[in-house]
Amino acid sequence: MDTEYEESIAFDGASGDGNEQARTRMLDSVKMLPKSKTMGLPLKLVLKVGARYMVTSNIDTGDGLVNGVVGILMKVDKGVHQDDDTLTKPLRLWMHFSDARSGHQLRNRNANLMNNLHIPATWTPITHITVEIKRQKRSTLHVMRTQFPLVPAKAITIHKAQGATYESVMVHLSGGVSRALLYVACSRATTLSGLFIVGTFSPPRPRPNNDPLELEKQRQQTVTLTTKYAFLNAPRQERCQLLIHNIQSVRRHVALVRRDAAYLSSDFIFLVETWSLPADEFPIDGFRCVSRVDNDGGVHLPKGASIFINDKWQDMLGRSGSQLVHNLSRTGSISVAWVEVDYTLLVALYASPSTAVSLMVSVLEPLLAPRVGRKSLVAGDFNVDLMKPSGRRTNLVTFFTTYGLASVLGDDVPTTGNNTQVDLAFTSFPIQSAGTNTVVYGNNVFNGMSYQAS
Hints:
- InterPro entries: Endo/exonu/phosph_ase_sf, P-loop_NTPase, PIF1_helicase.
- This is ATP-dependent DNA helicase.
- Residues 1-20 are annotated as: Disordered.
- This protein has 10 helices and 24 strands.
- The model has no long low-confidence stretch (mean pLDDT 87).
- The protein has helices at 20-30, 104-109, 111-116, 158-161, 179-186, 212-222, 250-258, 261-264, 357-368, 391-402; strands at residues 5-9, 11-15, 44-48, 52-55, 70-80, 88-97, 124-126, 129-133, 142-147, 150-152, 169-172, 195-198, 239-246, 268-272, 287-293, 305-310, 317-326, 333-341, 344-351, 376-381, 406-407, 423-427, 433-437, 446-452.
- It is 18% helix and 31% strand.
- The longest helix has 12 residues, at 357-368.
- The chain folds into 3 domains: 5-154, no CATH class; 157-224, no CATH class; 238-452, Deoxyribonuclease I, Chain A (4-Layer Sandwich).
- The protein is α+β, with helices and mostly antiparallel strands.
């Protein structure tokens, strides 16, 4: 590439116990080391704007700035020597990564700097890092190298590319490429149209029948595991299935619900702590929202509850209603949505952490008192821990016992990552099966249960 270039020379400093002679020897010894021995930091880095470079260190794994990420150098910010303004040194590099997720957080943190320097919003700043290079295991003397964590990326080995993905990949085939390496190389491309093969492609020979991997694949087919939540997808005739989940913002997570087979195979879905407003819409294919309660102040806050029923139950709907009640100081609230389906009362509830049990009773008692001896189910996030003895626990359980309802989970089953059981379900009728399952969004697990239809 015929463009002007800058050179970034690494700064090496000796650290630890040792005399001057030992320090000099240590510094000289690292000058000729390959990058594989210097934590990916080269002694000399040639910087050309428009050239492609690869990150050689895990700068920030959570931000996608990891070893192997490739981008284009767009700009070099230079500093001037305080005694000689003809001497310059690269201080900051601006990279454009093809994957917008790489460096997204770093770009946000440097938004003001980028605006002041008129830097495009898609460029990511890369600065020096410092690593420790040890030459002898038992020696306390080591070298601290400071350099940009980049190397030119004209081509990389298959091993180096492992774990990365690219829009365009050209694989240069040579003799002796194993099946495993060929798979790694070709699967780096995100699309088939972005994969190019140079050389003669010869498909690897099939594995023999006695190959250990083939034998293991055959063995695994004979010992398939039955998952904890297999009953959610099991065929059912006279059985109803209900999922209850503290979703902690339905707007943020409803897309995941729409793709979750456990939800979509259910008869009823309770979503609590929805953070919803009356104008929010969050439909689920195959289901109808028959009752919901939202925030009342125009702000998305941790309140709300919604009940969805499968379309096949539309002809069995009865009365429905909802209620949002605050305590006098408005420091606690209870959100309740309810519906009658097939002569069964279903109640979804969310109580904020500071809500008194007496407030829950005042809302639930008018619903349950007229139905003693009939089928009722109340479930949601009560923010009362049934795993620990307390006055709140005793009062809540006593209330439900008075009207013939009991908890469906054992006292030793946590429903949160904090080892508490605050996501509860109480019923006045037998449950065929019930359990909890961890989800990737929110701190609370979801509860699932099935029961005999009327």
